[in-house]
Amino acid sequence: MDLEAQWIVGFTDGEGCFHVGIARHSEMSMGYQVLPEFVVVQHKRDAKVLHALKKYFGCGVVRSDRGDRMCWRVRKLDHLSGIVIPFFERHELKTLKRQDFLAFRRVVRMMAKGGHLTAEGLAQIRRIVEGMNQRHVRSGKVKSCPP
User: Fold this and answer.
1) Percentage of the chain with pLDDT > 70?
2) Could you tell me if residue 99 is inside a domain?
3) CA 47/CA 50 separation, integer angstroms
4) CB–CB of 34/125 below 8 Å?
5) How far apart are CA 144 and CA 84, in angstroms?
6) What CATH number is given to the structural domain containing 112?
7) How far apart are CA 45 and CA 146, in angstroms?
């Protein structure tokens, strides 16, 4: 399956998610771990699309998600900052998801500079994350990102 950039943009506008989790982690210097990820979820019958995305971008993993769902996830910071983010900078999202992408990009860039390793940086990331994906949930138009 060959994918084109604009098809990926449209598909991501409908099915993709830029998500940043913040989890307690006692071994981390701040006591928390910041976990950015780009995720696309599909029913297992459409897993070929997820594998095509993995091939196109050359990164991430395709795995079972929940029940009969599969997902393609990119979590590695180098892949997010060096592959995924530049792609969506060159090929802009068309929906409100663009705002989530911009917030996501800001967090990933902060992390690349070690911003998540200070109390001030972690607090700033928390503020950014609080605003992500919420307008979709409140409007009822798009479901929230997977946890």
Assistant:
1) 88
2) yes
3) 5
4) yes
5) 20
6) 3.10.28.10
7) 19
Q: Is residue 147 part of a domain?
A: no
Query: Which stretch of DSSP H or E encloses residue 135?
Result: helix 134-139
The beta-strand segments (E) located in 5-60 are: 16-24, 32-43
State the total domains in the chain: 1
Does residue 126 form part of some domain?
A: yes
Q: Long-range contacts of range 129-137, CB-CB < 8 Å, 24 or more positions apart?
A: 129/20, 129/22, 129/103, 131/103, 132/18, 132/19, 132/20, 132/100, 132/103, 132/104, 133/17, 133/18, 133/19, 133/100, 135/96, 135/99, 136/96, 136/97, 136/100
Which 8-state DSSP code applies to residue 10?
Answer: H
**Digit-coded pLDDT (tens) for 36-64:** 999 999 999 999 999 999 999 999 999 99
Q: Does 146 reside within a domain?
A: no
Are 59 and 83 spatial neighbours (Cβ–Cβ below 8 Å)?
yes
103-128: pLDDT as tens digits: 999 999 999 999 888 889 999 999 99
Cα separation, 50 vs 34, in Å, equals: 25
